[in-house]
Amino acid sequence: MFAAGEEPVGVRVLTYQSSRAIKQIIKGLDEEEILSIRASSFGKIIDIVDKPSFSGRFARYMMSRQLKVKKKHEVCFRFAGQPIRFSLREFAIVTGLPCGTFPPKWKMKIKETITEKPYWPSLYGKVEVVTVASVIKMLRRRTVRDRETRIKFACLAILSSVLLPTSLNTKISREHAEAIEDLDDFYSFPWGRWAYEMLMNSIKERDEISLSQNTIAVKGFALALQLVLVEAVPSLTEVVQETCSSSESESADDVEEGSERSSKKQTLSPAHARNLDKKTEVVYVKSIIDEDPSRPLDESTLGWSDDVEDVGVDNLVKLINEGYKFSASMFKGGATKSDVERMREDAKVRGKEKKSSKAPVKPTDVDGGNCEVAAVLMDMIKPDLDRIDGNVSSTMRAVDDMITKIGV
């Protein structure tokens, strides 16, 4: 996307996910409960607690090193003169989550369950809103003692705070809760594909202009990017740094207490990554990471019905599999800083033209000229006005009928 040496220097990537939450969830479980989850499809997510935490600065560094591809559901990065592939396959490898196709009409079935016989009350009673922070407290204080229920609480908290977060104040999703009544069915559901789609959509919507901003917000499990890059470039973990600054992390969720919130954590060093990136002849890079032998994949289930042909990516993958030796000089083209500035100016012009082409209807009888507020208020009260108008009309018809009958 950007020419070599012309990559924007930003601050960090922000994301709603919380890798810290995993540590807090584990602390609330006993050994048997942890082993039970480790043996499931969520096992690798539990193991993330032993890896460097998400570094927003490192993610920002790599986001600016994307290669331009046509494929809708994968991206490629360049590091130390080598390409690194990030697709659903790589996501499945580092997370261990099922990433196959979704069951037929699964959304409709969940909606029917919520309407007809919801499972939510069996978990949380009459409580309408349950935050991840409150679930962690319940696990720690053993408010819930049934082992299977506690495991369900932990898995739902992982989904909402780590894999599929939609806000900083993470809450347990009712849809997720309905899917966990049968724990085996829950573990086999393709949560990985769902999480990957959320992450990839957020990455793909970023063009050269938005990637040039200092701070980029990314939805979904952004830590997966870092996990894949560490597998591809093991030397990235040779230098880690301790930090308690939120600028290196992804969120400020309220799941930690007291000294835990201010305790230091280990993250990748962006400075070390930059140094490695320059050593194109000596740094080992695995362009397509190896499959985990303990969790074999069925790659035939990892396709996309709406993907597009990309000869460039297909040739790149073919060369990688053939052991081709890439070099930094091969990755030519890309936008320069002046190109991005020109794109930004063009976007402003298009925005002005689009705005001027519209002919908004503005109310003229509002004092103070606050037309937008008046329009919003009018939309809000219009149903009531229509109802009143209808009542008046029906009343007038009734009066007319009465007058006709009595002959007045």
TrEMBL record:
Residues 347-356 have a biased composition (Basic and acidic residues). PANTHER family: DUF1985 DOMAIN-CONTAINING PROTEIN, UBIQUITIN-LIKE PROTEASE FAMILY PROFILE DOMAIN-CONTAINING PROTEIN. It comes from Brassica campestris. Residues 63-202 form the DUF1985 domain. Residues 242-273, 347-366 are annotated as: Disordered. This is DUF1985 domain-containing protein. It holds the Pfam family DUF1985. It comes from the Eukaryota.
